[in-house]
Input
Amino acid sequence: MANYDIASENFIAESLNNWTEHLNRVYGTRTISAKYKAMEWSGEGHLIKDTKGKEYIDFLGGYGIFSLGHCHPIVVAAVKEQLDRLPLGSKELLHPQGGMLAKKMAEITPGDLKYSFFCNSGTEAVEGAIKLTKLYTKKHVFICAENGYHGKTLGALSATYRRRFRDPFEPLLTGFKHVPFGDAAAIEAAMTDRTAAVLLEPFQGEGGINIPPAGYLKKVREICDHRGVLLILDEIQCGLGRTGKMWGCDHDGVAPDILCSAKALGGGVMPIGAFVGTEKVWAPLNEWPTIHTSTFGGNPLACSAALAALQVMEKENLPARAARVGEYLLRRLHELANKYPQYFKEVRGLGLFIGMEFHTDEIGDKLYGLFFEKGVLVASILANPKIIRLEPPLIIDEKIVDDVIGRFEEALRELRI
Ligand SMILES: Cc1ncc(COP(=O)(O)O)c(C=O)c1O
Output
């Protein structure tokens, strides 16, 4: 891009026009980029810069991708080293990075989880988990949660709750039932002899940062064990330290039979997803590995990024940091909510997985824009703008929180409804 005058209005206008004409009209005309004529250009730590040099504090973190912040030097160095040597594998020879990463996943995941399959995204991890469950159990009924989100490919979409995403594609996979989130008895009541697995997020992200009652997963695990049903946990958004422990299920001290991960796994540098299973459930894949494959999944470049990311996560003890800074951020947000009760309905969350719910969509929508003007990126819930999600990098500290709270308060003072 060396030949472009990236700070010029022409460059931005042309870039937006390219989006409008060749990607999607809505993206090029009705997004925050279009409204404020801003395009991202570089990132470092908790900051993103646009092409004009304006800095934004990233409190959205790519919906959970940037747990290590942007361009973490250790991950970038590992990827550059691999990039110059062998970015993508031959697909004939095995590479050491794949084995090392799978061994690491077995070490850091709970219980007896032991075998990994690497793919390129979260939805693929869920697809793989669904297929493995069908192979192992020879059944096809899955119990999922209302407001759950698991991706948008046809299999994962069958587990996703929201009708707006599902209806145009019906019929989806048969056998997916949705019961209220946080209600273990509802799961038990929905079980039959045909139930293959329960598939849940330990804490719901896209559904609006929903935290179930303590002990929920423990009860679900007991019910699954009692009924001989598998438990699949989708840790794609809430896993890898975000909620203050390595995995969401660690809060209840339970282990699933299959765990799905993605997003932060690539260290904010490479796309990678994984589903990890116990030796028992992996038996069909160990017998017939080529029944589920991916050309790019688990390539050396992505595995190098993930290995470096997990090393940083452990060395810097990011789950503990997320717990400490998250508690502080929640406290400061509760203070704001008490000061502006005319706008706030609720603040909730765990670690650095936080939702602010406002009384109306209009309040959420306007604040989202005002926060952007103040230089803070946040996420609105795709189908529910009255909730704003905060998923900042886990590397932030209390000083950064104070800065952001100051900017939020300025926005709240300026808000006119
Ligand atoms: C819990 C959960 N599962 C699955 C997915 C799908 O992941 P991806 O968008 O990488 O396919 C997401 C994405 O937001 C998610 O939050």
User: Anything to note?
Assistant: The mean pLDDT is 97. The radius of gyration is 21 Å. The pocket of pyridoxal-5'-phosphate is lined by residues 63, 121-123, 126, 149-151, 201, 205-206, 234, 236-237, 262 (CB under 6 Å).
